[in-house]
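COMPLEX REQUEST
Ligand: zinc ion
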Amino acid sequence: MDASWRERYSRQILFPGIGEAGQEALLGSHAAIVGCGALGSFHAAALARAGVGCITIIDRDFVEPGNLHRQWLFEESDAAQALPKAAAAVRRIAAINSSIDLRGRVADLTPGNIAELLDGAQIVLDGTDNFDTRYLINDFAVSRGIPWIYGAAVGSYGLSMPVIPGRTACLRCVYPDPPSGAQPTCETSGILGAIVSLVASLQVAAALQILSGHAARVTARITTADIWDGRGVRQIDSPPRDADCPCCGRREFVHLEDVRRPAATLCGRNAVQIHERKRPIDLQELHARLQPLGEVRATSTCYGSSRRPTK
Ligand SMILES: [Zn+2]
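STATUS: Structure written out below.
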């Protein structure tokens, strides 16, 4: 580590839990963030400032004015331009820390692309807003032995749980199947920015422990918090691993199997996700076909920023 980096990260290096060896490990590490909304934009900024050397940001959505009260990375101009969140995040994060690798991908994480999009990641942070994606991440992470940190927030309530394959319970040990029926979302119940930053901070702390070489310090606990009803923060031990868990016990990764999924509306009100069916949709051809009807804008799906050469 050169002198400028030692100065930049000096207060983090002074913290005995990290030290110079831990900072070196962070600089050489790779984290993936799935979903760059409220939780994910906090993860991205915090990990970049901490010096995580490579960050992959995956998000399928666009910045809207209704995001701005809780999604710390984004600005009014991002919403005015309806920028993809992955693109706006890469641009902002590169201004926060120009010495790290950033990979922004405008994509919906699916069984068909998860291996490619999460390639090389040593940890996955959950910034999603749906259970389909969380069960997919859980299957992938357990199958590859990669830790992931579950996080969710709605209204004034949130929770987080680290999953370290082989040591802690996985998502399916705790909740064998995704919940059925409509779940409360930020669209139906609203959300406070303060619960988001609390949950995201817990996720980031666990990620820093793991990436700095101290995974053993991560406690197998579920943390819940309500910042409005007076109950505050509570922690319970995660249940032990279930030897008969279909995922981490029997290693049946059903959520990794490619299945047809219906079109789904996104968290934003003016967006629809169209999943691939029998053949991929040719967006160039669709662009040309819609052009006569009005203004049609196409955006790239990959955004990136590379670190400067090490001095
Ligand atoms: Zn399990």
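REMARKS: Residues 169-170, 172-173, 241-242, 245, 247-249 surround zinc ion (CB under 6 Å). The chain has a mean pLDDT of 90.
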